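Entry 12.
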Amino acid sequence: MGSYENKALEEADAWRNKIIRKTGMMNRMSKQAQIKLNGFIPEKAHGAITETFKNLIEGVLKGTHYLAKNKKEEAEMAFSEREEKVKKAIQLAQKTGMLEGAGTGAGGIFLGLADFPLLIVIKMKLLFEIAALYGFNANRYEERAFILYVFHLAFSSGEVKKEILDIILDWKEKNPPKEPDWRVLQQEYRDYIDIIKTFQLVPGIGAAVGAYANRVLIAELGETAMNCFRLRMLSKE
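Predicted 3D structure (tokens):
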């Protein structure tokens, strides 16, 4: 393993240790408040929200026009070259997300609500591209499952992050874990983005908040994906 790979693995290990550390008090209080708020939502509504979220995610996962294909010239790329392309893909997704967030944020409540599915499409497309750049075929079930867990890890609270991280670190390509609990996934995702995205619906500041929020959320997803693939590939060498 070369010097670049060693440095990348060190960064990934530091990122992993940050997740493993105990959740801070403010994060715990925020999560407890979200749990209490979710308790006021009727069970029937929870079921409907979960099913809608699941259908949205699965629709994107199964959309063949989002599957990034591995190019022959990329098959022999050095790890550093792969990561350079990954960083550029993240930056492009951030720009796209900022434009989308600013546009829907400026449109008030109704367009602001449209941001939810549009942003998921941008995020999933980015994950497919990152997987392909690291040399993994997203047409395979195990890679789609891995992408789903990376998404789950990026947008979850501290305690759930630890559970999902354990699954990713012990990933079994020949016998991958089953899909995550969809209800937990959608609640964690909504709770994670709720506060910052709610301000996107406020007239006057919605455009600025939407652009900023999408840039930050996509950056978090990109960092999570990079480090997950680093640990998956380099820890075995």
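Annotation: Residues 105-114 have pLDDT under 50 and may be disordered. The chain has one domain: 3-234.
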